[in-house]
Structure formats: structure tokens, C-alpha cells
Amino acid sequence: MNGNIRVNPKTEYIENLDGLPFPARELLPMDKYQQINMPHGSIAKSTKNTTLITSRGCRARCIFCSSTKFWGNRYRLRSAGNVLDEIEHLVKDYGIKEIHFEDDNLTLDKERARQIFQGLIDRRINILWNAPNGIALWTLDDDLLELMKRSGCYEFTMGIESGDQQVLSKIIKKPLNLKKVEPLVKTMKRLKIRTRSVFIIGFPGETKVQMRNTFNLAKKLRLQLADFFIASPLPGTELYEICKGKGYLKKGFDFTELEFLNSTINTPEFSAEEVARLAAREYLIYNLGLMLRNPIGFFMRYGKTILQKPIFSIGMVVNKYLKKAIF
């Protein structure tokens, strides 16, 4: 109005997600997506992959998460039958062979999750699937992991975030007990589900010792891939309000330049530059070390991407990690 931006408050959410039509993929160049093949997480076993969302919202209140600001902290679900119908449609009409679930919390309702995974088996839908956006570890158990594997799961991202329980519980406010992590990782390895996790350092109130606890946990778990990200104060999040209130935002802070590999927080405990170097160094040490620990596994995971996109792969390592680790 009058050239000004007005943000209308959210008054209600769509409750019946089954009432929404399937995405109009016929309007998209699906073949182009498959040719380019740059999925979330960069890795896919099949080029014939696409994304799918089965729920909205998450009940957790992690301080760094902006997703709940537009999806809400209320958990709304599509029925298992509705989800399976869309997957069958994707297989039949588009030849899809791999699904990437992009839910914020795919398995929060464990019974519905079981119905989806068992439904893939019962309907004989022969697909692979992963969950690059992450699955909440506190919702998992061995029986569910077994069913996930049988239904086609080959990998999912774990949101462990921190290797320090105090940081998880008191700072991030994530409802995860670290004692649950190692047994689940062991089960995943037994089932040959690829182990990958996101870790985040640089939160206000976090110490350098606690950051080191995170790196130590990653090493102890011997994951196939670990992403070491930096806490980003996204506007609207509790993290942003804390940093703004305490004056921790880096001088010249510009939210349009936020990225999970850039550090924008200075606290009495650490500087933004220190955290950036630390995260980049640990990423390189951990993930390039995979070549020595498991060269076959390294090639199976990254070989195809490196061969198909050598310039992209080299640029990613040099610009996002090597330069920061050195300088």
C-alpha cells in the first residue's frame, strides 16, 4: 500500500493436505531436471529422481530453524494412502526411480511413517529413496529403520547438530538425547543405510570446548559424510533475536548474504573468522579423510559427481572450504 511492504499475519493453516492436488509437474521440464541432476544434497543413485513432501510443520523449537515460521509448529499430515498414490503416479507417468522426501519431520508420526514404508512394499513400488532434508533421530528405533531399508531407503541426513548435550538441550533446544545416536548409527551401518549428518557450530553461549566435542563425536561415529555448518541468524528465528539483542551480529550484517558456510556471529567466546576457519578445516579433514579410510566408499559416493561435474566439484572444495580453511 502506497509503495510500502505490508506483511499480513498468518490467520490459519490448511488442515486437509489430502485436499491439495498433486504438484503440476506437467508444467515443468522434468527431463531437464533429470539431465542436470543436481538434487538437494548433491547425491542421487538415479538421475530419474524427484522431490516429494508428505507433511508440513514440526513441533520442535530449535532456535536456528526458520521453517516453522512459515509452516508452523503444528504438524499437519497427508495420509499414507495419498502419499503412496502420488509416488505411483510419479513412477507410472514420469518413470521416477528415486524419491527425495523433503519433509521437516517425516517420521514424527511413527504409525503414519510405517504405513508409508510398508505401503511401498505392499504395493510393490520399486523405488529408492532418501531424505536429504533430515530425519529427527528421536523418532527412530531399530524396527523402523529395518522397515525403511526394506522399502528402499539407502540414505538420510541425520540432524545431530551438536556433540555436546548441554548445547543441544540448553542452547539449541533440540529434543535429542545423544545417548540415542550411537546405537542408531550402528544399526544404520548394519543395514547398509549410508550415514550422513549435519553438525552446526558457533551458537551464542557455545564454547570452543563444546565445538570440539561436536567434532569428536563425528569422528567417533565414523560417518560416511559429515557437514560442519555455521549457525546462521536467519531473520525471524530465535537465534536472530538473541544475536541482535546481544549485539553479536557481525558489522555490516546483511541477511541476503546469509549462508550456512559463512560466519556472521561474534561473541565474547569466539570471533566469526575463527568459527569459519574451524568449520572449513574440520570439513576437509573429515571428508577428504574418507579417501584414506574407505577409498572404495569415497569413489562410490563422489566418483560419479566428480567425473560428471569436475569444475563444479573442484570449485565447491576450493571456494567454500579450502580458501576459508587457509585464510
Structure report:
The structure is a single chain. This protein is of the alpha/beta class and about 325 residues long. It has one domain (about 15-325): pyruvate-formate lyase- activating enzyme. It has helices at about 30-35, 65-70, 80-95, 110-120, 140-150, 165-170, 180-190, 210-220, 240-245, 270-290, 290-295, 295-310, 310-325, and strands at about 50, 55, 75, 100, 130-135, 155-160, 195-200, 225-230. α5 packs parallel to α7. The chain is globular. The termini are far apart. The mean pLDDT is about 90.
Number of domains: 1
**In which order are the strands of the major sheet placed?**
1-4-5-6-7-8
- Molecular shape: globular
- Which ranges are low-confidence, i.e. pLDDT below 50, for 5 or more consecutive residues? none
Percentage of residues assigned to helices: 40-55%
- The number of distinct β-strands equals 8
Q: What's the CATH first level?
A: Alpha Beta
Jot down its keywords.
327 residues; alpha/beta; pyruvate-formate lyase- activating enzyme; 6-stranded parallel beta sheet; two-stranded antiparallel sheet; 13 helices; 8 strands; 44% helix; globular
Describe the SSE topology:
Layout: H1 30-36, E1 49-52, E2 55-56, H2 67-71, E3 76-77, H3 80-94, E4 98-101, H4 110-122, E5 128-135, H5 142-150, E6 153-161, H6 165-172, H7 181-191, E7 194-201, H8 208-221, E8 225-230, H9 238-246, H10 272-288, H11 290-293, H12 295-308, H13 310-326
Parallel strand pairs: 1-4, 4-5, 5-6, 6-7, 7-8
Antiparallel strand pairs: 2-3
Helix pairs in contact: 3-4, 4-5, 5-7, 10-13, 12-13
